[in-house]
């Protein structure tokens, strides 16, 4: 059953040089309990997509299109109604656990806040639930931790607190925007596992955003590859990894250094740089850097071509080379 | 926590001591012989010498300093050269005017500034913001004694709502006394309010950019709830520090403003005493003013530690 | 197209900077003009023309001694500017040196300097100025010294803070690794990077100096008669407040405009410099 249906979502930012299209008409669906990953480099529009769904775009940005949550369009909803949905039906955790918590409030209070707001819980009930949540996210001695301040916790612990906060009202969807990027490598694994387990246990849908292919590969069932504000390839993780279709995806995967590759081999790179979203060409955003670019690519946006039941890519020069991942 | 407190107390007393030293030294430079001031220029040499001995002026500097400090610690004050009464008497009857005046100004300034500052931040880059910023620029640029004169001009001379100066004394009744302090406290409060408002605004804006504000919105808190529950407390921390620092300026302002309104407060006392070469009064009152400022800053420090949880743990 | 060109094109469009620059320019122009010409001599008294209202002969009227108000206002600009320039220079030269030293040497020199300047902050500055002037006598020179003295800790603290931040940066580390001494580093690397903040603070202190001088003059401790001074004009006008209140308005407006102009200029400079610094980082 479709929980979230994003249709032709566009986000335009006001810049000094005119409007920049950070997200150019993307569409995807999310079912209950599904896990989807959004992969792409910085500036490809993945965070903007998440913020647009939450209605938390900056003042200078405007969203168009439809985002249907159980049939209700979030884009046209007024602020009050959106407030009831945020933290309640859709929750989001962010990249920087160090600064995402209010330094002058104890963490217990911050975790209890959405519960008291959306579920009308009293102080005592909220506190009990907070302790239970802290325990569930793996924080030792939760009763004594409830009164702690954020600066008394490590980065990994703070991210656990963020997760507890996000889950406190049992949301239908959890959006995790680069949740492990700012953490030590050893902790990353733990946090990802935690997210995975919780999502399974609570039957939530998950949108995991990352630029790290490894993170995506082990956590989500489906993935969307974004570039220059558009989805250029999508499908089940397995299918996409097995048979990369889009030249950008191929370049991305090839650029990942492989163990045992040998010190003498140069790292493969995609020539050129990420485009400035305020100056995108009318056609495919990847045209300038694409090794298989055709005339038509520059002038026209490629449509999603279905390659397999659970795999599609938007490219005029499709060619499945099978240089996929692991 | 007690280590923190002890450290701060030591610094507090040390600063007071250094202040007293500085005041003493500064006045050593002051020309003019107190004995001549008291007895007049024509007094016979013998009388001058006798008086100097009596006042202890023939002792070396360090000895006079110690005597002074020790006496102060015991609550013993010398007599003013010009008025002949104990300095404590002089100070007491003036403190009861200046302290309420300063407090009124602080309250007025804070109330206006917090309101305006938050309003400006909430309306960032829109009409309200520009308006507040412009008015506050004016508030800072206008000299407080000129503002005082303009207030007198408008409210006393033209409209006749207030007297153009003077203080009837608290015996005359609560309302008449307060009435006399209204215009002066507005004159004093204006600059402070302007500075605080700008600072509050920039502090609030800065805090609004922090990540945890985004987290609060993501939890479903409305803009207003986020502002009051998450932003304010963080934004106020630096504002309180500024308030403490500006208190010194407030006291300094009383020197001029009390002169404009002919209010017999501490500020005016200092000024008159300097003119009269009444060294003991200057010495003690200046030290008193410095002590008040140092104490206020000490309180602000303590307050800071209470409000910002990050500090408490750090100093343990 | 260098960074400087970019700076001026952005500066031209910045409201505060332009407004502040215009007002400050007005102040400076008035002062310069008054050196060579004022409608009447600012100290020329005349019993016949006392307390005249504004007229074609006297654009702002005359005061109780028959002096032309416009002339005094113009001449007063000289006083304000000279006090501002000299006192800020004193504070700047000594304070910046102290701050650089403190940041370069660390250790107890830094501690003592900073405690001392912290302490100077605890002391009401005007009080210090009044005491100093009372000690060494009234007059513009002494007022300048007094104001200059209380500028020193302000610049010292600012410099030390900014310099310490630059010392921590990598290119300074590289210079030290190359064997450069603290003095050379201070002049070649630290100073250029902190000049911007010092200049901004300088304009702010200039404004404060004008206000302080006005207060001192009002109390009779600044420029002595017959030298023209806006502050003293105000105290003389106060006695006439029931007779001709406008006398009190003009000098105040002059002070307010000058201070406003300098503050706006400082604000504008600060805005223009900050993003530039951010880009260079």
Helix percent of chain A reads 25-40%
Give the C-alpha Rg of chain A: 21 Å
Number of helices of chain B: 13
The average pLDDT value of chain A, as a whole number, equals: 86
Distance between the termini of chain B: 6 Å
Topology pattern of chain A, helix = H, strand = E: EEEHEEHEHHHHEHEHEEHHHEE
Cα distance spanning the termini of chain A: 31 Å
The structural class of chain A is alpha/beta
Overall 3D form of chain B: globular
Order of helices and strands of chain B: HHHHHHHHHHHHH
Q: Name the chain pair with the biggest interface and residue counts per chain.
A: B-C, 45 and 38 residues
Commentary on this structure:
The complex is a heterotrimer of chains A (about 325), B (about 325) and C (about 280). Chain A has helices at about 45-55, 80-85, 105-120, 125-135, 140-145, 155-165, 185-200, 215-220, 235-240, 245-255, 295-300, and strands at about 1-15, 20-30, 35-40, 60-70, 70-75, 90-95, 175, 205-210, 220-225, 230-235, 305-310, 310-315. Chain A is of the alpha/beta class and about 325 residues long. In chain A, the strands form 2 sheets. Chain A has an 8-stranded mixed sheet with strand order 6-7-8-3-9-10-12-11, with helices on both faces. A 4-stranded antiparallel sheet of chain A has the order 2-1-4-5. Chain A is globular and about 65 Å long. The model of chain A is unreliable at about 320-325 (pLDDT under 50). In chain B, about 80% of the residues lie in helices and about 0% in strands. Chain B has about 325 residues and is mainly alpha-helical. Chain B contains 13 helices and no strands. By secondary structure, chain C is mostly helical. Chain C contains 10 helices and no strands. Chain C has helices at about 5-15, 15-35, 70-105, 105-120, 125-135, 140-165, 170-175, 180-220, 230-240, 245-280. In chain C, helix 3 (about 70-105) runs antiparallel to helix 8, helix 4 (about 105-120) packs across helix 6 and helix 9 runs antiparallel to helix 10. Chain C is elongated and about 75 Å long. Mean pLDDT of chain C is about 80; it is low at about 275-280. The interface of B and C includes residues 275 and 282 of B.
């Amino acid at each position: 059953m479709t929980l979230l249906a994003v249709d032709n979502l566009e986000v335009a930012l006001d810049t000094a040089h005119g409007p920049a299209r950070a997200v150019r008409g993307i569409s995807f669906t999310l079912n209950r309990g599904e896990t989807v990953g959004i992969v792409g480099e910085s500036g490809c529009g993945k965070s903007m997509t998440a913020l647009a769904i939450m209605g938390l775009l900056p003042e200078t940005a405007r969203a168009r299109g439809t985002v249907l949550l159980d049939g209700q369009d979030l884009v046209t909803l007024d602020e009050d109604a959106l407030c009831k949905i945020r933290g309640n039906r859709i929750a989001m955790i962010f990249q920087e656990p160090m600064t995402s918590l209010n330094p002058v409030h104890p963490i217990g209070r911050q975790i209890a806040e959405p519960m008291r707001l959306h579920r009308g819980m009293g102080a005592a009930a909220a506190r009990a639930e907070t302790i239970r949540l802290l325990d569930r996210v793996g924080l030792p001695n939760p009763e004594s931790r409830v009164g702690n301040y954020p600066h008394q916790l490590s980065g990994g612990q703070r991210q656990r607190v963020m997760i507890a906060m996000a889950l406190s009202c049992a949301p239908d969807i959890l959006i995790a925007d680069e949740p492990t990027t700012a953490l030590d490598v050893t902790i990353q694994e733990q946090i990802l596992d935690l997210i995975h387990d919780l999502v399974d246990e609570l039957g939530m849908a998950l949108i995991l955003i990352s630029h790290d292919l490894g993170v995506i590969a082990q956590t989500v069932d489906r993935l969307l590859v974004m570039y220059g504000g558009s989805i250029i390839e999508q499908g089940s993780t397995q299918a996409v990894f097995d048979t990369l279709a889009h030249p950008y995806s191929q370049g991305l995967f090839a650029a990942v250094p492989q163990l045992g590759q040998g010190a003498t081999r140069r790292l493969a790179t995609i020539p050129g740089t990420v485009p400035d979203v305020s100056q995108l060409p009318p056609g495919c955003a990847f045209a300038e850097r694409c090794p298989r670019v055709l005339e038509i690519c520059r002038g026209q946006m490629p449509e999603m071509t279905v390659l397999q039941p659970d795999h599609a890519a938007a490219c005029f020069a499709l060619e499945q080379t099978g240089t996929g991942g692991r | 926590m007690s280590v923190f407190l002890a450290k701060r107390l030591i610094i507090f007393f040390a600063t007071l001591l250094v202040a007293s030293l500085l005041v003493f030294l500064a006045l050593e430079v002051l020309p003019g012989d107190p004995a001549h001031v008291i007895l007049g220029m024509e007094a016979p040499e013998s009388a001058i010498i006798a008086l100097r001995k009596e006042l202890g002026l023939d002792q070396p500097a360090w000895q006079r300093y110690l005597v002074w400090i020790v006496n102060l610690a015991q609550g013993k004050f010398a007599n003013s050269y010009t008025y002949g009464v104990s300095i404590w008497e002089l100070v007491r009857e003036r403190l009861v005017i200046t302290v309420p005046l300063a407090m009124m100004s602080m309250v007025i300034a804070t109330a206006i500034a917090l309101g305006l500052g938050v309003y400006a931040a909430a309306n960032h880059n829109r009409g309200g913001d520009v308006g507040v910023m412009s008015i506050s620029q004016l508030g800072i640029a206008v000299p407080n004694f000129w503002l005082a004169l303009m207030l007198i001009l408008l409210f006393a001379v033209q409209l006749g709502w207030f007297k153009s100066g003077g203080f009837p004394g608290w015996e005359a009744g609560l309302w008449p006394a307060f009435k006399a302090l209204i215009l002066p406290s507005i004159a004093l409060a204006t600059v402070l309010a302007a500075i605080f408002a700008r600072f509050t605004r920039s502090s609030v804006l800065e805090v609004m950019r922090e990540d945890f504000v985004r987290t609060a919105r993501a939890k479903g808190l409305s803009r207003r709830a986020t502002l009051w529950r998450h932003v304010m407390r963080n934004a106020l921390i630096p504002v309180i520090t500024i308030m403490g620092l500006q208190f010194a300026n407030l006291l300094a302002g009383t020197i001029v403003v009390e002169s404009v309104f002919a209010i017999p407060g501490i500020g005016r006392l200092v000024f008159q005493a300097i003119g009269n070469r009444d060294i003991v009064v200057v010495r003690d009152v200046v030290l008193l003013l410095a002590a008040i400022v140092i104490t206020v800053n000490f309180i602000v420090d303590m307050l800071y530690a209470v409000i910002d949880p990050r500090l408490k743990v750090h100093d343990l | 197209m260098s960074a400087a060109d970019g700076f001026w094109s952005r500066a031209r469009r910045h409201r505060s900077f332009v407004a502040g620059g215009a007002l400050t320019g007005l102040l400076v122009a008035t002062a310069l003009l008054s050196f060579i010409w004022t409608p009447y001599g600012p100290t020329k008294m005349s019993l016949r023309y006392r307390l005249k209202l504004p007229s074609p002969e006297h654009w702002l009227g005359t005061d109780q001694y028959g002096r032309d108000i416009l002339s005094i206002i113009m001449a007063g600009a000289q006083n304000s500017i000279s006090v501002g320039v000299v006192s800020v220079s004193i504070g700047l030269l000594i304070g910046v040196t102290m701050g650089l030293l403190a940041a370069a040497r660390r250790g107890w020199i830094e501690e003592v300097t900073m405690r001392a300047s912290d302490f100077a902050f605890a002391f009401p500055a005007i009080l210090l100025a009044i005491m100093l002037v009372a000690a060494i006598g009234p007059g513009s020179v002494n007022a300048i010294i007094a104001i200059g003295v209380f500028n020193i800790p302000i610049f010292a603290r600012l410099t030390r803070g900014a310099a310490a931040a630059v010392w921590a940066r990598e290119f300074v580390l590289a210079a030290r690794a190359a064997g450069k001494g603290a003095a050379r580093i201070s002049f070649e690397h630290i100073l250029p990077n902190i000049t911007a903040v010092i200049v901004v603070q300088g304009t702010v202190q200039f404004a404060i100096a004008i206000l302080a001088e006005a207060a001192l003059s009002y109390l009779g401790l600044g420029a002595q008669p017959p030298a023209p001074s806006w502050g003293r004009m105000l105290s003389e006008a106060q006695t006439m407040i029931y007779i001709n209140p406008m006398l009190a308005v003009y000098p105040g407006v002059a002070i307010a405009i000058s201070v406003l102009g300098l503050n706006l200029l400082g604000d504008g400079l600060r805005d223009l410099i900050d993003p530039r610094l951010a880009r260079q980082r």
